[in-house]
Specification:
alpha/beta, 428 residues, 17 helices
Length: 428
């Protein structure tokens, strides 16, 4: 797809490019395996000497078309789909880390990500140091070690809504010879392109805004192709030395800028198998086609709702980067001038108990674990998504005990506000 096209056009036209007489709509290649005429040809595929498909756990045409669309939206060189956003985070880090290595991570990340990097991967011998994303660069720099292999953060933190200073984190990572991996789920490539500001790898939970309809779980990893792994071969031996599990291939020598994603596909997906199903990739593609339209409405509605909540007498505080009173307003204007996301966090003067009572009285907004759906939804993270954290960890992650996460949908904004008004009127 030509780079002259804007994102709205890419969302519709990129990925699947039918030839004469082929289906106009992306087909679902619902097959585990693919037929070849000769053993020699199949062998070349296994040696990575030719492009092609032989088993869906590694690659599938439906998945590759959707990955290509997301890759183009982000401005990357290569991308791969995974079975979930959690799998994307794990693969993105584990692709360049092994036992004895170290990761620097922003404290304000999704609870599942926090748990993955600080607990589960710790059992695998990979240590993680958590840093305050708002701390001065010289303070964050102290977290780096000789064995640090990457930095991980989120463009808009879930649910703290901290807006990352991408340039600051990219410079810190590059000064220490490691890539910056950024989860861009909440902003989506419609509102933010981290590569433009120095990030090297982007991950997504495609389950959220990209799918947009709570239909399919999935994830994606996109590589910018900008990080020079060969400049630090001792730091990244998995990419710069022969892979004995794959015929001694050295990924950087054979695949150049596609080395990182090729390794993740041919090694991690081969061994760990968290592939997105072709059916889910098809549904994801349908969601991507309307992503720009939905993000515009999500952001418009969220801005109106945030302003309503900020003015309400029973609301103690509101956190939304689109509000001029918000501490991240200027960063949001810099990195996401067209809008941030549809997620708002707020607290009530009545505290945690009042929050529970209000949520129970909502009629239009549903209490669900999900976020970034076309439908308005609400959650109490301290009781749900972040319940594995203690009070100190909650505070570090920017999740107050009374925090309500409101994911504003694309219904008419007046109906959303009316639902909140009636629920708030029912509490003291």
């Amino acid at each position: 797809m030509s780079k002259q096209y804007r994102k709205e056009t890419i969302c519709i036209q990129s990925g699947w490019k039918p030839k004469n007489g082929e289906p106009r709509v992306l087909p679902i290649y619902q097959s585990t395996t693919f037929k070849y005429e000769s053993s020699e040809q199949m062998g070349r595929l296994f040696d990575l000497e030719e492009d092609g498909y032989f088993y869906t756990r590694l690659q599938n045409p439906t998945n590759d078309c959707v990955a290509a669309k997301i890759c183009e939206l982000e401005g990357g060189v290569a991308a791969m789909l995974t079975s979930s956003g959690q799998a994307a985070t794990y693969y993105a880090v584990f692709n360049i880390c092994e036992a004895g290595d170290h990761v620097v991570m922003s404290a304000t990340v999704y609870g599942g990500t926090f748990n993955l990097l600080t607990c589960t991967m710790k059992k695998m011998g990979i240590e993680c140091t958590v840093v305050d994303p708002d701390a001065p660069a010289e303070e964050i720099a102290k977290a780096f070690r000789p064995n640090t292999k990457c930095v991980f953060a989120e463009t808009i933190a879930n649910p703290a809504l901290v807006v990352l200073d991408i340039e600051k984190f990219a410079k810190l990572a590059h000064d220490h010879q490691v890539p910056l991996i950024v989860d861009n789920t909440f902003a989506t490539p419609i509102n933010c392109n981290p590569f433009k500001w120095g990030a090297d790898i982007v991950t997504h939970s495609t389950t959220k805004y990209m799918d947009g309809h709570a239909m399919s779980v999935g994830g994606c990893i996109v590589d910018s192709g900008n990080f020079d792994w060969t400049a630090y071969p001792d730091k990244f031996p998995g990419l710069c030395t022969p892979d004995e599990s794959y015929h001694g291939i050295t990924y950087t020598e054979k695949f150049g800028k596609a080395a990182y994603i090729t390794k993740a596909t041919s090694q991690l997906m081969r061994d760990l198998g968290s592939i997105q199903s072709p059916q889910n990739a098809f549904l994801l593609n349908v969601g991507l086609e309307t992503l720009p339209l939905r993000m515009e409405r999500h952001c418009y509605n969220a801005q109106r709702v945030a302003e309503f909540l900020e003015a309400h007498e029973k609301v103690a505080w509101v956190n939304y980067p689109g509000l001029k009173s918000n501490r991240y307003y200027e960063l949001a204007q810099k990195y996401m001038p067209n809008g941030t996301c549809g997620v708002i966090s707020f607290g009530l003067k009545g505290g945690r108990e009042a929050a529970s009572r209000m949520m129970d009285q909502l009629k239009l907004a549903a209490i669900v674990t999900h976020v970034a759906d076309a439908r308005t939804s609400v959650l109490h993270p301290a009781s749900h998504t972040h319940r594995q954290m203690n009070d100190e960890q909650l505070k570090e992650a920017g999740v107050a005990p009374d925090l309500i996460r409101l994911s504003v949908g694309i219904e008419h904004v007046d109906d959303i506000i009316a639902d909140l008004e009636q629920a708030l009127s029912g509490i003291e």
